[in-house]
Amino acid sequence: MTNVTHACFRSRSGSAAICRGHLRVHMRWQCGRYHERISTVSRQKLPEDSELLVTAATMYYEHDASQQQIAERLGVSRPTVSRLLSRARDEGIVRIEIVPPGIDPALAPRLRERLGLRGVHVAPGRADEAEPGPVLAEPFGVALDDAGLASGDVILVSWGRAVHSLSLHVRRSYPGVIVAPAMGGNASDRPWFQPNEIVRTLARSLGAQPRFFHAPALVSASVYAALFSDAELRRSAELWDTAKVAVVGVGAWPKPDATYAATGFPVEDPALQSAAGDVAGWSFTIDGQLVPYSDDRKLLGASPDQLRRIPHVICLAGSATKARAAIGAARAGLISVLVTDATTARAIDGYLDSESAQADTPTPG
After folding, report:
1. Exposed site from 43, 176, 196, 262, fewest CB < 10 Å?
2. Residues 6+ apart with CB under 8 A from 38
3. CATH class for the region spanning 107-360
4. Element of type H or E holding 313
5. Are 56 and 84 in contact (CB under 8 A)?
């Protein structure tokens, strides 16, 4: 199943650049409804300032009059017109809704087929890479609803800006569902690198139950074995085998963000030079081959095989810079559902087109 969501944008104020042509029909209907209500209650004389609100709004939104022209027509100052228009919006006389351009309806199913995914959900517009939650929250909610969660089911979450941002903006109700980390934490002071913090926030946003995992993400082989001798950690890790959903971001390599190195991940490891991205701490090439670290440290988190067995691994990709990483994650089998914005979806589609074109080009000689 594929879904395309719609986005509402903030209303016009002052000189914000919104084309009134896109607003005119909506404004005419709103103002027309107001006039219709006036005629219906003709015995009740509207206050004079209400008539000014309607007149100012009609001239501005229907007839493209400037605020100065309206001021001259009504015999008031230009600041007064500005206040009248603001009141018209505040009181519901004018309601501004901008409908973004439609998304190619074939885009999501085409990406789903090309990437071999269970589902692709595309939000209109372009997400902010540092804060993609406001754009991706609604299509993510649809993807989560598609998973058919019931009380007792488990959602795993990885770290990353996208997952953290999403946890602040999504709103759903899943009482009895458990939200738990897909991996350990680290010493970074950035909230998006703290899975337990993301678990707490997402569980609150979903009305679910948080379950925490108090251990570092990267440890030596000897510490790895010792940690799993702890009964509480073993019980938490058992959720990695029973989860129905995992929510992950996708990191794009090479890593330009110095804060990533602060988490303890070996960003300078020569073995990672071929990496296109990472999901839940596991790095991979554009062809979907896993890239192991060159040292003996172990990642304390859901393994690639465990992720592949989870029915719904929902990947959040909120920037065109994530296109190659998202493709590699799909080919590695680490994700099954993609939630992205229209700009990123087109970048992924374009990259796949360029690969196909290169494959079709005859080799000289």
Report:
1. 43
2. 46, 54
3. alpha beta
4. strand 312-317
5. yes
